[in-house]
Amino acid sequence: MNASALIADVRARLSAAPRERLGEWTSSRKVLGIGRAPRIVPAGEAWHLGVLLIGPDAVAATGEIVRARTEVIRGFTAESQRARAALAAAARRGGFAEGETVHLGWEVLDLDVVDAGGTSGPLSVVVGIPQIRWSAGGGIRPLGDYLDEQVALR
C-alpha cells in the first residue's frame, strides 16, 4: 500500500472520532489607529496521530501544541514560560475556547511525492514501503504499523 492509501484508510477508521483544531497567526489590524494584540485564528481541524495531523483533505507534520488560556499577569521564572503564555493568550484572543488544544507551526506534507518514492517531512519510502520518522533523533518505521498503533492509542 502507498502512503495515500494508508492515510485514506485511517481517515475512514477515524471518521467518528473528534478532531483537534489547527491555528495560524494573523496580522493585527489597526482600529481607529490603535494596533490590536496579535492573535492565533482557527485554520482547520485534524486528527492528531503522533507526529502527524491528518485532516479531511491534507496531512501535516505537527509543530507546536498549546492550550488556549486567558491572559493574566503573572511572574515567570523563565523566558520560555513567558513566550508559552503569550502563545496561549493569542490563541484565546483568536477565538479558541479556554483550555482548547491548538496546533501551530504545522507543515503540510505532499503525499504525491511520497507515493512517487520521495520524502516529505517525516514521511519517506524505503524499499517500496512508506516509512515515518517519529522523532528527530529516532529511527524510521513502517507507516502502516505506526498508524495502527496511533489509532489503537486513541
Give the rounded overall mean pLDDT.
89
In terms of per-residue confidence, which ranges show pLDDT below 50 for 5 or more consecutive residues? none
User: What percent of the residues sit in helical stretches (DSSP H or I)?
Assistant: 25-40%
Main-sheet strand order equals 7-8-1-4-5-6-9
- Please state the overall shape, judged from the principal axes of the Cα atoms: elongated
Task: Count the E strands.
Answer: 12
What distance separates the N and C termini?
23 Å
Determine the structural class based on helices, strands and strand pairing. alpha+beta
Total helical segments: 4
Strand content: 25-35%
Rg from alpha-carbon coordinates: 18 Å
- Domain count, please report it: 1
Largest sheet: 7 strands, mixed
N-to-C series of helices and strands: HEEEEEEEHEEHEEEH
Oligomer status? single chain
